[in-house]
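Subject: mismatched residue count in predicted assembly?

I count 336 residues in my input, but I want to confirm that the predicted structure covers every chain. Input:
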Amino acid sequence: MYNSKITGLGYYVPDNVVTNDDLSKLMDTNDAWIQERTGIKERRWVKPGSEDTTSVMGVKAAKVAIERAGIDKDDIDLIVFATLSPDFYFPGPGVQVQKALDIKTVGAIDIRNQCSGFIYGLSVADQFIKTGMYKNVLVIGSEIHSKGLDLTTRGRGVSVIFGDGAGAAILSRTEDNSKGILSTHLHSEGEHAEELALTAPGMGTRWVNDILKDNDPNDESYYPHMNGQFVFKNAVVRFSEVIMEGLSTNKLGPDAIDMLIPHQANLRISQFIQKKFKLTDDQVFNNIMKYGNTTAASIPIALTEAWEQGKIKEGDTVVLAAFGSGFTWGSAIIKW
Ligand code: COA
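Triage response: the counts match. Full output below for your records.
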């Protein structure tokens, strides 16, 4: 049986830095509150009029990953694109990447699993490689939140958290079964779908004609809604469970973790997990301070930065874990 291995990583974030002080000019918030509750100091938001879109940023990250993998774009057999903020309502951004990279007629899959999107994407790619169907799969997580946030005091519980950015990985076939993606674990609990959601426009809620007809400036359904404390409580439980599930499947304990890359939801969530698994600061990678929560992009950005900084070495056990809207959650256990 084949195994799959990450052979290239890349990320891209817009240049435009938005600090907590910048946000306090738009809404009733302050640097101390944001840092204390979330750990975030600043985030990147695309500048209005910038060429960057979710797919364009995904392409920029992908080009770096492809080059580092040492493959040609035409060696890619499948594109998997995870996002909650696509350029268009349809089609999804996978085909835009295919066009921008000028990759023949390979398949393009769009993943809609929010903060868990990259792990879901990685899992899909892993299955295609393990079954022998494909040799190289491009997995992208990319988001633009800044264009869709409520930047008034009404939206402050959500809008201070999210940032824009993109990350990408090339997953390639290997016959060395001691290395690569050892296992992935996916879960969801639709009962809580509306605890963290953007409900309009939606065919089940309010579609464009309804919105235009009502033309109601107080309509909050265009903005993400989050029951922050409920999300937090579920996140710490599910993160812990799914990390343990991954470790146990591979007959490993928490002491085997060389590097944990948690989805960058909130520094307090990462610190809770770190404490629970008795990990040192060197064993957990966080960059939420600089980028905020970039949902599907957060893990590939963090994984790329950790690798670029030499924090992931050959033979390391690397654990990826995410939790988010859906609720969805997942983990991946990787032997580097
Ligand atoms: N600046 C200042 N005050 C703010 C604020 C902001 N940006 N956002 C909310 N507040 C206020 C609230 O209005 C509330 O005021 P009140 O007590 O007068 O009503 C107070 O701060 C506490 O709000 P609360 O929502 O209870 O804060 P919290 O401690 O739960 O922190 C989150 C809010 C969002 C940071 C926290 O719940 C969280 O991180 N949840 C998980 C989020 C997450 O991970 N989401 C992504 C999942 S992938």
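Residues 34 and 40 are 6 Å apart (CA to CA). Marking this ticket as 'not a bug'.
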